[in-house]
Amino acid sequence: KQEVTQIPAALSVPEGENLVLNCSFTDSAIYNLQWFRQDPGKGLTSLLLIQSSQREQTSGRLNASLDKSSGRSTLYIAASQPGDSATYLCAVVQGAQKLVFGQGTRLTINP
Amino acid sequence: DADVTQTPRNRITKTGKRIMLECSQTKGHDRMYWYRQDPGLGLRLIYYSFDVKDINKGEISDGYSVSRQAQAKFSLSLESAIPNQTALYFCATSNGLNEQFFGPGTRLTVL
Q1: What confidence tens digit (pLDDT) does each residue in A4-20 have?
Q2: In A12-95, which ranges are continuous DSSP H helix?
Q3: Residues in chain A within 8 Å Cβ distance of B56
Q4: Which residues of A touch B45 (CB under 8 A)?
C-alpha cells in the first residue's frame, strides 16, 4: 500500500527566504505527482503536476522535482511572501488514477 | 465562474438523516471523485467515476453511496448520517494527464 509522507509537518520562516518542502512515497510505481496548496477551510489549488517521466516542473517562484527511484519530491519556493502561507499537500497517482495524499506541511511566512 | 462547484457549502444535520452533497463541473472531464478530509487523517477517497456508467469504491465507501447523473454531475449521499461522518468533503475531476482539480468543499456536521 502506497504511503506518502511530508516532512516537516509545520514550518515558519521569515519573508524573503527560499525554502524547500519535502514529500516521500513508498511505492515508485506512480503515474505522476501533484502539489497542491490549501488555505484554511478552503479547497485545494493545483500548483504543479510532474509526470512520471519528468524530473521537474516550474511555475513562477515554484519548482518541483521528482526522483522516482528514491521515492522523493521537493517543492522549492523562492523569495517567500506572506501570501504563500498555507498548507502544502503532495499526492501521487497510481493505478486507476487515484490520488494518495500526504498529511501536508503547514507553512507560515512571517513579515 | 468556478470550474468545479459543490452544494451546499455548509450543512448541519442530525444523526439518522439522509443527506445529499452535489457536485457539478464545467471542465468537460469524464473522471470525477469524492474525498473527505479529517484533521490528522488527510484526504481519503470515498468513490470515483470514470464515466456515466462507471462507479467505483474508494478506500472508505462504507456508509456512502454515489450517483453519476451526467458527465457534469456527481452526487454523494449519506443514507443515515452518523457523527463520525462529520468532515470536509471535496469533489474533484481529472483530465487526461491525471491532473486533479478540486471544488471548494462542503463542511458537514452531524450532531
Answers
A1: 999 999 999 999 999 99
A2: none
A3: 96
A4: 98-99
